[in-house]
Amino acid sequence: MSEPTVLESGAASGMSGWAYDAPLTWAQVCEDPTLDGLPYRIELDRYGRLLMSPVSTRHSRLQGRVARLLEDSLGGEAFPECAIKTSEGIRSPDVVWMSEAFATSIEDGAIALSRAPEICVEVQSPSNPWAEMEEKVTLYLAKGAHEVWICEPDGRMRFFGHEGERETSELMEDAPSRVTL
Question: Which tops the pLDDT comparison, 17 or 112?
């Protein structure tokens, strides 16, 4: 997989249908029909630029497996690509898990969460440098996540809390050390 593509907003982007002269907002991204159905994970950096990363089938399968493990073990809601407002722009963890209490606290019509759900999971692609994963761990914890999980390309799981890396999850007793397909 290649590095994420950063597209400038406005005419400089070269994409038809875009007429933004200022940085994009997440609402504009969500409403833009030219972005529907793209085979990319889309995020927005703090400057209002789109970040687009291609997603492989293996990546998607790992996302699904982790989401099912979370719901089966913890109940609540687990789902992919939940937009979260961070200090670095909109980030969308590959999977989030939230308790029923958290889920009911979300405002109707919210297009991005102002605080992170209890567990945020990133599935690391071979093209993602570890520094990028560390940045995402920091961003999600700063926005209120209790834990951040990293699923490495080979399925090995790593768990992080505010104190740093943990041996296992404190929120899910039977968290796997590896996710297999």
Answer: 112
